[in-house]
Design a protein that fits this description.
The complex is a heterodimer. Chain A has helices spanning 6-15, 20-38, 46-61, 104-111, 154-161, 178-184, 218-228, 272-287, 303-318, 337-348, 351-364, 370-393, 416-421, 427-432, 461-474, and strands at 41-43, 73-77, 115-120, 167-172, 187-190, 210-215, 258-262, 291-295, 396-400, 435-443, 449-456. Chain A is an alpha/beta fold. Chain B is α+β, with helices and mostly antiparallel strands. In chain B, helix 7 crosses helix 8. The complex binds zinc ion.
Chain lengths: 484, 516
Amino acid sequence: MLDLTATELLQRQANGDSSAESITQTFLAQFRQHDSRIRAFLHVDEADAIEQAKAIDAKRKGGESLGKLAGIPVAVKDVLCTKGRRTTCGSKILQNFVPPYDAHVITKLKEADAILIGKTNCDEFAMGSSTENSAYQTTRNPWDLERTPGGSSGGSAASVAASQAPLALGTDTGGSIRQPASLCGIVGMKPSYGRVSRFGLIAYGSSLDQVGPFAQDVRDAALLLEVIAGHDPRDSTCVNTPVPPYTAMLDEPIKPLTIGVAKQFFGKGLDSEVEQAVRSALKVYEGQGAKIKDISLPHSPYAVAVYYLVATAEASSNLARYDGVHFGHRTEKFAGLIDMVKKSRGEGFGAEVKRRIMLGTYALSSGYIDAYYLKALKVRRLIRQDFDQAFAQCDVVMGPTSPTAAFKIGEKADDPLAMYLSDIYTISANLAGICGISIPCGFTKSGLPIGLQILGGPFAEEKLLRVARLHERETDWHKRRPAL
Amino acid sequence: MMSYRTIIGLEVHVQLLTRTKLFCGCATTFGLPPNSATCAVCCGLPGTLPVMNRTAFQLALKAAVALNCTIATFTKWDRKNYYYPDLPKNYQISQYDLPFSSEGWLEIETPAGARKIGIIRAHLEEDAGKMLHDERAGKNDSLVDLNRTGTPLLEIVSHPDMETAEEAKAYLEELRLLLREIGVSDCEMQEGSLRCDANINLHVPQPDGSFVATPIIEVKNLNTFRGVERSLKYESERQAAELQRNLDAGVWHVDATRTSKFRDYRVSPITQRKSDGALGPVSKATAGWDERTGRTEIQRRKEEASDYCYFPEPDLVPVTVDADTLERVRAELGELPAAQKTRLQSQYGLPVYDAGVLSRQGRAFVAYFEAVVKQCGDAKEACNWTMNDLLSTLNDRKLDIKESSLSPENLGELISEIQATGLNKQRAREVYAVMLDGLTAKQAIDKLGFKVVADEGQLLELVRKAIAANPKAVADFKKGKVKAADAIKGFVMRETKGMAKTEMVQQLVMRELAKE
Ligand SMILES: [Zn+2]
C-alpha cells in the first residue's frame, strides 16, 4: 500500500478495498519503523490521526459526500499554523507556540477530509537549504542517510520519499519545495505568488513565500494543489481568480510545445551528471514533438544576491515580533526591557536566522537602503521582465532544479555562501512570482535522485502540470523508491 | 528682550470614526476592558495578515479632500520598524514615501484676518497599544493594553506656517470643527482621538537682515487645547532665553556659512562643540509638556535621526484612487465650515464675527439658525437669539443642538411675537425660559399672563404722571442729558410691570418731554 499514490488510495477506498483507518495505520507504522533514522517529523499525534481517519470512515459509511482527499494522510511543514497544535517553525523561540487558528491551507485540507498526520521538520523559519538549521533535529535523505534531504521543507520531502505520507505540504521562498523534492526524488511544486493563501503561514519573506504540494507523482501534486489553491479574503495578496481543475486535463499534452532552455541554467557549478540527466529529459520532450528554444534570462546571475537582500529585509521585520514580550520564548533572568528582548532573541534564534536578520536590517538601514534593498527591488523587476520576455517565446522554461544531487550533512553547514548557491536555479521563480515544479528525471551513478525544474508563467499552473505529466508518462524515475 | 519670529508646525493624529480597526475586525469602542477588543491579527500572532478596512480609507480620503490636499492616484503601505512593547509586531503599518494625500491647506481666523495654513501631507497608519505601569507595593510591572492597537489614525502634518501659540490653537480648533463636521473623527482630546505634537523654534533677526534659527523642539503630550497654547507660549520664551544665555556663554555659535532659505529670507543654524571637539549643528530635541508645572521638559536630544528601516508592506496591496471615487467623496462632503461662513455673511448679511460663531457650532446649529430665519424672516434677530440665548442654554445644560427642547419654529415664532407686540427684551427672556419646557410663544405668554400695553391713551397718562413725578430728570433732559429720559421710561415700565410696548413709550416720552 505504501507504493500507492494518493489517487490510487482514493480509488481503493471508493472501491471498498481499503479504509481511511487502515491507510493511516499503514503510514503510521512506516513512521514508527523509520522515522527514528530519517527524522522527518517534529510532532505526530497517532491517536489523533486515527481519530480523524475513523471520522472519515464513518462519514463514508453514513453515505455523506466526501472531500477530494478523503482519508489521505498529509504531512505538513511546521511553519503552517494548526489550531490547538504546536507550530514551532523549527525554532526554539516558538517551542511552545500553539496557534488559536488554522492556516488557510489547513482549513482546506480539513474541508477535503484529508488526515493531518503530523508536522514536519524544517530549517528554522524556513531559512536554509538542508534542514540542518532546525533547532530540534537534522532530517536525513531517505536515499542516503548521510546526506541531507535539502531544505527548507526537508521534513516534508523526506516524509513522502520515505512513504511516511503519500502527500505533504511545504513552503517555497527561494526553492524550499523544489530543491528538496529534487534531492529526494519526488514531485514538488511552487505555485505562482498569490495562487495559495498565506494566511497562517508563518512568514519568512512575505513577498516570496508560497505554500505548495509534495507528491509521488504529478497527478497527486495537481490534486493537492487543487485543494489548497484559491481565494482567501484574509490574504490581500491572494488573487481572486478561479482555480482550474488541474487534474481534469492532466493527460492532455500541450501541443505545440515550445520549451525554453536558458544558458544561464547550465553554467559553472553544475554537476555533469545532473546536466546529463536534464539533457536526457529534454530529449524525452523532443521525442514527443516539443521544440527546444535557446533563450536568455540575462539577469538571473543576480538572483541569489537579490534574494538575499529582499528575503532577509522582509525577514528582519517579520521576525521582530519574537521579542519575549507578547509570545514566544522569554528569557529567565533579565534586567529591564531591553535586556529581556536581547536575551530572549539571543537564546531563541539559531545562527542562520540571526545572520539573516542582521543582513536584512543592514540592507534596510539608512545610508545603505539605496545601494542594497532598493537596488535589489530594481533588479527584481528586471528578473521578472526576463521571464515575461521568455514566456512570450515559449510555453515553459526547463533546467536543473539544483546544481548537484543531495550533499552530505555538514558539508556546507559552515559555508553559508556554498549553501545559498544550492538554490541558484530556483530563486528567480520566487522573485518573478511565477510557478515552478521539480520532477524526478534520473539518478547519479551513486544512486541519488536528480530533479528537472520546469517553470511556467504567472498562474500557468495547469499548463505547467500538463507539461510535467508528459515527461512522467514517458519515464519511470518517479516510481523508484529508496531502500530503507 | 530680543524680538523674534516664532515658527510652529503641528503634527496631528486623529482616530477615524470606523466601527472596526484598520486591519482586522476588532471594535474601536473607547473604554472597553483592557485587551478585550483584540484578535490574532492586531496582537500580531505569527501567520496572521492584515486586510485593509475600506471605510477607514474612505474617511481618510474625505478628510484629505476637505483639507484641499492633492490625492495620489496610487498609494502604498509601508512598515515603520521599531521595538516597543505596545507594538506587538514591532513594526507599525504606515505610509512613508507615497502617502495618499499631500499639499493642502486649512484656513484659520487670526486678528489680522483669515490665513491659509499649509498642510504637507496626510497619511493613514495604525495606532499602537497603551502601556500601563503597575506600581503597587512590591510590583514593578508594566502592563500592555492592546485595545487601541490597530485603530485607524490619520496623521496630518502642517507646514511651519503658524507664528503664534494662538494661531496653533486656532488651527487645531478649525481642524477639529472640520473633521467633526464631515464625520471623520470625533476629535476628543481627553479620549485621545485627537493628539497633537508641535515643532517649534524661533527665527531671530540679525543686524544684517538675516535670521538665526534656534534648534527645533518637538513638544509632545499636548492633551488639551489650552495646553497647546500655553506650552507653545512657554517654549518660545524659553528658547529666546536659552539662545541669549548660550550665545553669551559662548556655548552656541551662529553658523553664518550654512544658511538656508525660509520663506523670503535666509536663516543661519546654531552650532556647538561635539564630543569630538568639532563644531556641529545642535540636533532636534523632544520635550514633554507638564500641564501642572506649566513647563516643557527637554527629554532627549537625538544625535542622529531614528532609523525606522521603512520598506513597502509586502502583506498589503497598493491602493488606487480613480476620478469617480474622488468625485463621489467630494459630493458627499457637503458644505464645509469655511464655505458656510462665507455664505452666512452673503446670504443673511451677518457680520463676519457672527457668521464665525455660528459656523463654529457646526452644521446642525447652522441648520437650526436657518430654520429660525425661515420662520421669522429676521436673520439678525435669529442670529442674536441662537448665538446668545440658545447657545448659553445648551452650554449650561450640556446639550447638543439636536437635543434642544426648543424647536427652531417656536423660537422663530417668539421673534415674530416680539416684533408684533413690542415685548421688551427682559420679558421676552422670561417667555423664552418658559418655552424651554416645550411651549409655543403664545402658550408661554398666556401662561405668564403677559399682556402688552399698547393703548396710547393709557400710556400717555402714565408718561405724564412720570414727568410730574421726576422734575429733576426733566430738568436734566432740558440741559441736554438725553439719558435722563430713561428715568421717565423706567417709571412707565414699572407701572406696567414691563408690559408697555417699548417703541410707543419711547415715542410718547420724547414727544411729551419736548413740550416741557
Ligand atoms: Zn483585532
